[in-house]
Amino acid sequence: KEKDTTPAKAEFHFPGGLKDYLKASLGDEFQVTREIFAGKSDRQGGHGSLEWAVTWFGGDGFLNSYCNTIPTGEGGTHEAGFRNVLTRGLRAYAE
Question: Model-level pTM?
Fold first, then answer.
């Protein structure tokens, strides 16, 4: 049986949110775009929020995907859905 290595509590502090986290994670990596695309939306009534940050870079790998602060190294439906919506939006913009 595998031991659960998920910490009871983990704190991350990036004043600019995920945009700053992504920028710090990339370091000096070449970015294809000048800006990191990022945003945040809060649910009405204060019951949850969504924050995202995306960029294209010169590397050949994948950085990180999280769902409810849990790393999802194999992706998941939230990641597939995000990719589909992003692709649909970029295609609509290009047309």
Answer: 0.57
